[in-house]
Design a protein that fits this description.
118 residues; 5-stranded parallel sheet; 3 helices; alpha/beta
Length: 118
């Protein structure tokens, strides 16, 4: 399974953890500027967004991508320290999971398993 990742430099160990968990991570980018627009060109099975730092920026990116239709049918896992950071996004993204850094791998596994059932 392919996981596109938007994460800050400090969170790069997440990429290693995903790869060690058997996931392909074809694309990783810091969530700044308009880098998130590359998501549309990546054939990913899931998008993981780091919202542990500057959560409002992560929420804005997810809102933009959802509004453009980029996230239609694509599971999105938001990794945050405070679930309130994701407020309002569940109405914009149909397959949204909010999790903590410690539960990231299991949340990705669950979201991908749910996608396969759809």
């Amino acid at each position: 399974m392919r996981v596109a990742v938007l994460c800050w430099e400090e969170s790069r160990p997440w990429v290693s953890a995903l790869r060690q968990g058997g996931f392909s991570v074809p694309w990783v980018e810091e969530p700044k500027g308009d880098a998130h627009r590359q998501v549309a060109g990546v054939e990913a099975d899931l998008l993981l967004v780091d919202m542990t730092r500057l959560p409002e920026q992560g929420a804005d990116m997810v809102s933009i991508l959802a509004g453009e239709g980029t996230l239609d049918g694509l599971p999105v896992v938001l990794v945050t320290k405070d679930a309130a950071d994701a407020a309002g996004l569940s109405e914009k993204v149909s397959h949204l999971t909010v999790t903590t850094p410690k539960k990231m791998i299991s949340a990705v596994q669950a979201a991908l398993a749910q996608r396969q059932k759809i």
